[in-house]
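Figure S4 source data
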Amino acid sequence: MNRIEADRARFREIVRGRIRADLGRYLSTTELIARQGEHAVSVPVPQIELPRFEFAASEDDGVGQGPAARGERSAESGDGRPGEGAAGEVPGQHAIEVEVELEELAEMLGRELGLPRIEPRGKRNLEAEGARYSGLRSRGPDSLRHARRSFDAALRRTIASGQWDPKNPRVVPERDDLRFRAGKPAPRPQSSAVVFHMMDVSGSMGREQKEIVRIEAFWIDTWLRSQYRNLEVVYIVHDAVAKIVDHDTFFHLRESGGTRISSAYELCLQQIRERFPNDDWNVYPFHYSDGDNWSARDTERCVELLKQDLLPRVNQFCYGQVRSAYGSGQFKKDLDLALGTDPRVVTANVSDRGEVMGAIRAFLGSGR
């Protein structure tokens, strides 16, 4: 069994090496999101073949015989591109599904992007009931028997009863001498965080823009879940009006109205005040848009909300601007001009999926 377990461990390490090598590709696709479970994700990796010897047939003339020049592809092998060309008889590549814990996936992400661990800010720790075996009792299971305390009780009883003989120092514990560890309630700090994902769902935000947001949100949540014991996620969508929705609605809703970004910030602030006070929670608002806002006056309102109300209550505010054929991209310029020197504000441009990795590194790289 030990050899089998060692072989399995070695195989798992090889598989995880393949995942780490392809992590950049997973960071720009939705391949993992559809396979996500509560605590793990199913990762497709190319099938791994164990090495083996193949013996040539006796009628072969030898290696390298024939009219082809060195480096030319064999006519039987095809051009190697999957899904192209005529039907053939050569077997194709197969993928296997490997289940990876989300915490392990977060560790790979942190190593790939060089992300620092997050230190909870201020008093944002909730107390959870725990238990410590710091007490004793006279009854309990054998697994909790305290050997030293049981011997001490038996020794005291032997001496007190006059049975102790220095020439023959024997101590025979009786049932009443046994002592067992007992648990006592002990509240312990338990870090908690809330993530607000806010997205513009007006007509200028198309399907590709939402897929980019979906990829970013998945990896952001994966990393933050590895940093906090409790993580709540709140999804807010907005056009001219903001509202709270569930996960599926967030990524598939599309409205045709205008855009008033301040409505999302006002709703986020309301939720923080009513449900997630910053003395108890680490707060992370993320906003995604193509940069169009209803008016310059509303942008001024957004900056005012951030300066006076949101930034004093959050660990960090992040704005990701996705490229759209209809978006002006002006909102990021206004934010950078007004709040570009504040370390609690991070903005990033995401023109396409290839820039998702850089945006995630910018959002999570400060360790706030």
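Figure S5 source data
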Amino acid sequence: MGKIKTHKASSKRFSLTGTGKVKMFHAQHRHNLGLKTAKRKRNLRSGFYLSESMAPTIKKLINK
């Protein structure tokens, strides 16, 4: 029987915590940083947890 391959782009962007939550980093923190306020850039630096409704989709892509 065939196996489901890991979606490599997703596996680089998302990770799982020990409790099964999907962790990722904020977008919009790569370019045009001169236009953004220091507060906005500081908040974009931290990671966050994906919503419960989107988590099953990402877990399927990264085979966890």
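The mean pLDDT is 94. The chain has one domain: 8-61.
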